[in-house]
Structure formats: C-alpha cells, structure tokens
Amino acid sequence: MAESGSPISDLFDRPESPSQVIGRRRNRLVNIIKQNDLPQLRQFIASCSPEDVIAPGTPYLEDTLFNAASYGSPEALYILLEVYAAAPEVVKRFNPKFHLLLDACGAANADVVRFILDRHDSPENRLPLGPVDLHQRDDSGATPILLAARSLMYLDNDADEVEDEGLHWTEWVRDRFARGHQLIHLLLDRCCSATDVVPPLPNDLSPRGSQVQDSVLGLAVSRADGPLLQRLIDSGADIYLKHQHFHHARVPFQFRTTKGHAYDVTTLYLASLFYNPDAVKLLLDHQRDKNNTSPDLASSCDSDGRLPLHWAASGPGGSNCRLLDKQLRITETLRLLLDHDSTGINRVDNTGSTPLHYAAISHAMCGCSQHAELAIRTLLEYGADTRIPDGSGCTILHLLGYHSHQGDPVKTTLLGLILSHGANINHAENNGKTALHVFAQNLRQVSAAKFLIEHGADFRAQNSLRETPFHAAARGFLNDHVRRDGRDKDVTTENKIRLQDEMMRALQEAAGEDTAMFMSQPNAEEIGGREGSIPYQAPEEAEAEEEAEAEEEAEAEEEAEGSSRSVITGQE
C-alpha cells in the first residue's frame, strides 16, 4: 500500500482532468445507448446540459447520434433527437455531422433505418434527421444500399462490440446476417438501386483503373442467400462486372499479390472468398443461359493470375476464423467450383502459388479451427499436387510451418495426409531450408517436428548458410497464442524455455551419438568476422555459467577492494 504523500498515492488522489471527466461521461452515454436502457438515458439527459449530450467527447470521437443510429434502438434515437431539436443553438455551435441514414445502414440497423425513413416521410416530423437521401454517398462513395451490403461482408469493424457486450459470437453473426438481409430488401422496396457502385479511384491511371471499387452485388455475394441475390440480379446487377478489390490487412491474400489490390475481380471471386455456396451455385447456373456469350467465370483469372478457386482456397481470414466449421461451408464451396471445372486444381498464379498453397497459408494462420484440414483434404481429393513448390521453392509443408506461429499446433493427422499424397519431406526451398528447419524454429510445433523426424525428415540437412535444424531450434521463437474465442494467450518465458528444450531434445534423440557434433557445428554466417555456431544452451547449463560468472565477478571485486585498501593503508 502506497504511503500518504508518495508519488503513487498522489497519482491516485489527483482529481480528474476535464478531458477525463468528458471521456467518462461519453463512455457512460454510449453504454446506455448500446444497452437500450431508456430510463437511464432519460435520467442521464436530465442530469446534464444539452452540450454534454450533443457533444460528449472530443471532436475526433463519434458523435452521440452515430452511436444511436449504429447501435441504438429507434426509441433511444427519438429521445436523443428531441434534445437536438430543443437546443438548435447548441447544435449550430458544435455543428455535429448528421449521417444517420448512412450510419444505420453501415451497422445493418434495419429498425433505425425504417424509423428514419418513416419519420422523414411524415409531414408532422419535426426531428432534425439531417439529410435523408437514398442516393447520398459517404466519403468513400458508398450509398445506403452499398453500406447495407457491406455490412454483410465486413464483420471485423464491429467484432469488438460483440466482446464488449458479452454476446455470443455465433449468435451475433447470425443476427447480423438476418438484419443485413432485411435491410437490403427494405432499401430495394424503397427504390434504392441494385446497380449502385463505388466509383473508381480518381488518381488510378493504370490500364484497369476504371474498374469499380465495390458494387451492391459484389458485396452481397459474401453472405446473402439465393433469393436476395436473385432479386439483385433481376433488378439489373451484373454478375460479370469487374472490380478492383482492396485486401483487408488480415487477409492472407495480401502476402501473395504483386500490388496492394487486385483487378478483374468478378462476383464469383467474392462469393468464393467468403464460402457462400448458395451464391457460387447461383452464379454458375446463371451463366449457363443459352444466350450467354461471356467467358466462363470460374476459368477467368484476376490480375494476379488467380482463379476463383485460389480465392476459395484462401478464404477471408480475420474474424471469420472464429466461425464454426459448418458456418463457413468450405468443403461445399470448393466442391461446387471443382465439379464445375477441376482443370485449375494445380494452376499457379503470378507468384507461383497453387490453390493448395493458399489453403496452407490462410488456414494455418487461422490455426484454431479445422478449416485447414477441411480445405486441404478437399483439394487433395481433387488431385492437388503436394510436390509443386511456389515461387520461393516452398511446398505446402514449408508453408504450414511458416504460417502456423499463432494458432494451435499443426495436427500430425494433417501432416500424414499430405505425406500420403506424395509430398517430399526433405524438399529444400530456394534458401536451402527443409520443412524440418521451419518447424524446428517454430517452437509451438514440437509434435509436428517429431512427426517429421519419425517419417524420415533429415535432421542433418543444411540450408544455404550451412545451418541444420539444430540451428533453427536454437533461435526458435514462440508467439502469443491466438484463440478461437478471441482471447489471446500471452507467451511466458518459462513456457518458451520448456518448448525449446523439448524441440532440442527431439533433435538430439534423432541424432544420437552425433549430437555433440551437430551442437558444435558452425554455420556460414559471419559474426564479427568469425563463423557462428549454435547459440543454444540448456537452461541448467546457462544458469551454471551465470552463477560461475557472478562468482568470478565477486572475487574480482573483492580483490580490487583489497588492493585499494592496501594502497590507502600503505600495507602490502
């Protein structure tokens, strides 16, 4: 306990700053809105000035009406709008932006959208609803129906809200999709256009720069059901429209593109990416029309040389990893594409990657689920070749090792499946690393490394720096564990040491009598002009050395002190 007058005590006793008071008040108001606690909302308004309600936070934070339109109920929004209507001078002074319709559509808040439209159409309406135009656009160029369709595709923006409210993830997703469907139907009933698009970037002068960024159908195919998609197509939406697709930061595709985004992306790509078999089937069936002269959607490549099958093998990543296996419908989507045309099963894109490579990369990163095994098993069933390396010389085994650093350990059953389909366990990538090099350095993969050794992985193999898997294990790493429920598990030093010991022990048992030779084998990396050897020591050895060094330092200090005393006293 801190003593009175101490710096720590002063810190806790210090009164709140004005900004802290504002922040606390704003957070309370936002929580009341999200919980739809109408009595508390009225009590809050009665206890505050209009300024505290209309502008409860700093300018860079969302205003009150944004939270009400996005997460509140029509009743809560009505109560707040009455405050705005009663204080026009405050509204004018703070000039809050009114985008109620756009905000509500972006959050798939169908009840609030209906409230806004009905109130706006009423001749008795006196609420300051702001512009209510079904064709207005936000700063990105999106209209209300585009934002409603976007709410189906992008879940990450609101994923934190789920955890904050203590909601069950799968229930929230199901409700979000239902609200999105309801909202898009509502907007179509109100004469919104199914052909709305987000226009191209004005400064993109590339040959394909005229392609749209988004379309209603391109966004909706991510999650929409067949009847809604059919309604959009019947209303004029073009299934062949080409988009430029910007990759979300957490989507593995970003690591395999030549630029920041891809061109020539049709609706089938997006339906495949989000594992929507209803959309995939509808699009494939729709192009079978006898009067259709357009190229086959499934065999058309994007600007990076990828087929829709590559996109389906990858999946969207991000919070979608938290969805249940049956919700994603991975196998069903892949089978639809491959039954339509399986000739692209081993097609390489501009980076030399096959659909199998994409499945390994994406779903290894999503290692807290069965998604990897579902995707890889299905691709292998249709003839995916495990021996094909990508542009860096990596096979599927390398890629699983490289990208499984945050999820659960790679299952040995999956490795066995891959080996049973002809994978070369000792294939070396361009830098000379084998799969065992990669798995040995990833300390979370001890069981996988043991499995590879048991099935013939060469622990003597050297990469281009003359490093063996012993070197890789010695510089092993262990990242935080990303869990399916979104609550990551931090790495402890104790756990890292334990896993590194296990990894080294597995290699030592394989090497047997040759262990000492491998442990002292230098690599070709020059450190201070000298070749480096394995920088690993067992914890007990390291502790012994530290204790010995500490004793030597203590003895040296005692000798130095003794010499000083001798000089001072004149003693020899």
From TrEMBL:
GO terms for molecular function: NAD+ poly-ADP-ribosyltransferase activity. Residues 521-572 are annotated as: Disordered. Residues 563-572 have a biased composition (Polar residues). ANK repeats lie at residues 351-391, 431-464. One of its GO terms (cellular component) is nucleus. One of its GO terms (biological process) is positive regulation of telomere capping. InterPro entries: Ank_repeat_dom-contain_49 (IPR051637), Ankyrin_rpt (IPR002110), Ankyrin_rpt-contain_sf (IPR036770). Residues 540-561 have a biased composition (Acidic residues). The keyword Repeat applies. Keywords: ANK repeat, Repeat. This is Uncharacterized protein. The lineage of its organism: Eukaryota, Fungi, Dikarya, Ascomycota, Pezizomycotina.
